[in-house]
Amino acid sequence: MSAAGARARNSSSVLLAVAMLAIGLDVGVARITYGVVLPVVARDLQLSLTAAGLLGTLHLIGYLLGTLASPSLNAKVGALALCRASHFVFACAMLVCGLTSEVTTMAAGRIVAGVAAGFGSTQPNRKSVPLRGSLVWSGIGIAIVALWAPSCYRVNLRDASR
User: Long-range contacts: 37-41, Cβ < 8 Å, 24+?
Assistant: First the structure.
């Protein structure tokens, strides 16, 4: 292998490692932070904490459904097409959630986002290094938020009581 080829391969490896770190930390932080900001979300949308918590649960139910359906869909359309479609659908669903204050629309958007995330999370019959790496970093992101969240939660409770 030439020196230029070795540099390109090393650059690709570094880029892959940074991407796995970023995605994993983002997912880990996003999953746990929802609970930290839940009182503020509930106040802004005029929801009970139970209703606001249900929005988070609906996302996880959709994720479960998408993960269960992913292997057969992956076999039909291919991993790359499924990954691209799931990212697009996820982004659209989250855009809908961000632009509405209607709880039913938001609930539907959370379910669709969860299903799309589930579709994009599994690649059966492949040893997916990027997927495994992002899952490892998700756990690290969750651990970071678990250490950081208590101080943020106290601030949010003070803000929510105003």
Answer: 37/156, 39/156, 39/157, 39/160, 40/156, 40/159, 40/160
Domain-by-domain residue ranges, the chain? 3-160
Nearest-angstrom CA–CA distance, 120 and 91: 12
Q: pLDDT (tens digit, 9 = 90+) per residue, 85-139?
A: 888 898 899 899 889 888 899 999 999 998 988 887 765 555 555 556 556 666 6
SS3 state of residue 46: coil
**Residue carrying structure tokens 């290094």:** 129
Report the C-alpha gap between 33 and 135 in whole angstroms. Answer: 17
Q: Which CATH architecture has domain 3-160?
A: Up-down Bundle (1.20)
For residue range 44-91, what is the model confidence (pLDDT) as tens digits?
Answer: 888 888 888 888 888 888 888 888 888 888 889 887 788 888 888 988
If you search the block for the tokens 């970023």, which residue do you land on?
Answer: 22
CA–CA separation, 96 and 81 (whole Å): 23
Separation between Cα atoms, residue 135 and residue 44, nearest integer Å: 32
